[in-house]
Each structure stands twice: as C-alpha cells, then as structure tokens.
Amino acid sequence: MKQRLIAAILPVLPVAALASSEEAWDDFRAAVESACRAAVEAPQTASVSVEVNPFGSESYGAALVTVGGEGGQDRLVCIFDKRSQAVEITAPFADAAPAE
Fold first, then answer.
1. Predicted confidence band at 19 (pLDDT cuts at 50, 70, 90)?
2. Tell me, what's the pLDDT at 24?
3. Which residues does residue 62 pair with via DSSP β-bridges, in sequence order?
4. What residues have CB less than 8 Å from 32, skipping those under 6 apart?
5. Which among 1, 8, 21, 71 counts the fewest CB atoms within 10 Å?
C-alpha cells in the first residue's frame, strides 16, 4: 500500500518544483497576447481583442481573439507553443443562427 502511494505521488513532485512565480506568469501572458496580436491578419481599422487563458495547458498557451469591423465580429482561437513560441490562429468560428 505504501509503495502505491509513493508511486502515485512521485510523478507530481516535479510539477510542484517547476511552479512559476506570478511575474513569470505575467510575462507568459504578455508573450501570448503579443504573439497572438501579431499573428492576426486584420485591416488597420479593425479592433482586435485578445483574451489570454491565464495558464494554458502543459504545452500550449491559448487565447480567444475577437476581430471587429464594419462587417461584424469574428472569433478565433490562438494557440501558442510554450517551447518554440510558435503561434497558430484558427479560422473564424461560424456564427450559428439562434434557435427559434
């Protein structure tokens, strides 16, 4: 029983050791926002809003991006690779017609 408990706890220990400071998380969020803004292709007159997920996943940062203009708004997802800092933007979500 003791060995199972130890085996269950061991994989979690490195994660606790790698916990980041609030300053490091702020830097991460700023990097995601900056990279996502740079990756969005929008007219100069469009408004771009980037809502960064505070921590992302183990490997990726994520942000919801809204691009507004005369034709309405588009919503996209921005994925930020934490290792390479490469960014990908999804195609806009299609607006579904409201149910009647």
1. low
2. 95
3. 79
4. 50, 52, 56, 61, 62, 63, 78, 80
5. 1
Yes or no: say if 80 and 32 are a contact pair by the CB < 8 Å rule: yes
Tokens of 55: 């921590």
How many helices (H) and strands (E) the chain has is answered by 3, 4
DSSP bridge pairs for 87: 80
Residue with the larger pLDDT of the pair 96 and 65: 65
**Of residues 34, 44, 96, 86, the one with CA closest to residue 65:** 34
- % of the chain with per-residue pLDDT over 70: 75
CA-based nearest residue to 41, from 91, 97, 98: 91
Confidence of residue 69 (pLDDT cuts 50, 70, 90): confident
Task: Report the DSSP pairing between strands 87-89 and 47-52.
Answer: unpaired
Query: What 8-state DSSP symbol labels residue 42?
Result: -
